[in-house]
Amino acid sequence: MNNFTNFKNFCSAPWLHYYRSPTGEHRLCCLADKLPNDQSLKKYQDLKNSSDLKGIRQSMMANELPSICHRCKNLNNNRVYKDDLNAEFSHWFEQIEANTLEDGSTSIDPISLDYRFLNCNLTCLTCNPEFSSKWKTYEKIKPDLPSYQLYDRQFILQEYREVLEKYHWEKVYFAGGEPLLQSEHLKSLEVLLIEDQKQKNGINIFYNTNLNRNEDFITQWVQILNQFKRVTVYVSIDSFGRFNDLIRVGSNFSKIESNLNILLKNKGPNVQVIIDLTITSVFFFNLIEFSKWILSNNLDLNARVMYGEGFLGKFMRIETLSREFRIDMFNLFEKWYLQLPNLDRQKLSNLYEVLKSFYLLPQYQNQDIKEAMRDLKELPFFEIKKEIENLILNFI
Known about the structure:
By secondary structure, this protein is α/β, with parallel strands linked by helices. It has 2 domains: about 110 residues, no CATH class; about 280 residues, TIM Barrel. It has an 8-stranded mixed β-sheet with strand order 2-1-3-5-6-7-9-10. Helix 8 packs parallel to helix 10.
């Protein structure tokens, strides 16, 4: 068989990655579309060599990217998700080729897990009901909320427990929903800890969390994390103070900051903490204050510009703001940034480079502006809607 792992359209996900969405669907990964045949009430062992997965593997073995993977079309040589997966798991390529038949069936078991639950305590304006159960609270206020089929919870929980113990995981990614709300989360970590201790390099544990739990839970959670060989915790914070709470509805910045301090104070050297920032229109009004907060707390930062429109969030895109305003804000930030000491500039270099690349995005045209303002008007959070209106309406 040819060396198909070298092909441009090869991705290791159909062999090595197991993703189940917050609503219970089995997909190739968090970016892939739904599989052609609904197989969500099957366990992974029954899915592994299903017609769907065999067909997908055959396409990749022929250097063809399946249609459900369209978000990983490598346009303009930009890095995409499959590139990251392939780089991380390239040490498996030889085994993949040796243990895959021409019909696409394989004996390889998954080693990367992204198993999500819908439970969440926030209704972030950059998110949607598919990833947060909290949106259900607003069904009466906004009856046109999209509804998502939730698969049998008992089946999902049973399978989740089984896959944690059955396979030898090299990487586990906890996201959601909010992973720290999952009722069995601490027990899950105790199960994974047994496997972590067997592996020389341990399991690569990743989180995306909003840290909105009580202090006792955070303290207990960190104590368990310290027993793993390597952990990365991405803390979702999208601005400083009240501006963060406008974007991440239901959050309390003071509480997050308190829990973050507990995490930073008690974590071991094996636990890395990174602030995960999504840059939105609201963020531009708090840019320097947020940056000062990052520096004052000596935090690591990962920044990206908001893509897509969330659920009600077209007005959250930076293209809502006039280019003139964005230019003024970036120039102020750049002037302040370039006067910082080298170490401080290094801390904020990711934010600076992302802004430098994207602050000049084309401004919304009239129709887009109308849609953005309609989205803002329909927000089911009265006080937050008023505050955001007061912020952005003069800068469109």
